[in-house]
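Chapter review: from sequence to fold.
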Amino acid sequence: MYIFAQIIELIYNKRRLLVPFFFGMNFRSQVETLLQAALEEDKALFLIDLKIGSDNSIHITLDGDQGVTLKDCMNVSRAIEHNIDREEHDFSLEVASAGVGSPLQNSRQYVNNKGRKLRIELEGEPAIEGTLSDANEKEITLTWKQREPKPIGKGKTTVTKNKTLSYDEVINAKVLV
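The token string follows.
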């Protein structure tokens, strides 16, 4: 009966009562579950990276469809920090947004950066700098201008190039500022 009452109460206030359900879970699982619950509350945010050190240092990197505010970071931090017992676990917590110079790692990041200039590194090819003209769940399309010799005669002409790449082909991609 006690567990049933907790489940009902959890449905109405899932943030406040997550701690009793962590009994028997390891520290990493607790953090992942709390983080997932916090991200479900704000669907515009998504996880870029989660690192938990051997000293229980937690480093979370977030991004969002409309960017990440300080308040977003505070809300995620509080959702985790307030639901882990400090008597049981000594930990440090850092929640940050993906920086401007950070590599793009998620398809949602590419979609958010349509129209911006990127530098993309590919396996065995020189890096490409161009405008991200399209992005979806499977691939991206980059557009750039390039000078090439004229087909007839001397001199060069400017041509527009397009290249469609799957995410598997991209080794590293950064937004150029």
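Two observations follow directly from the output. The radius of gyration is 22 Å. The chain is about 25% helix and 40% strand.
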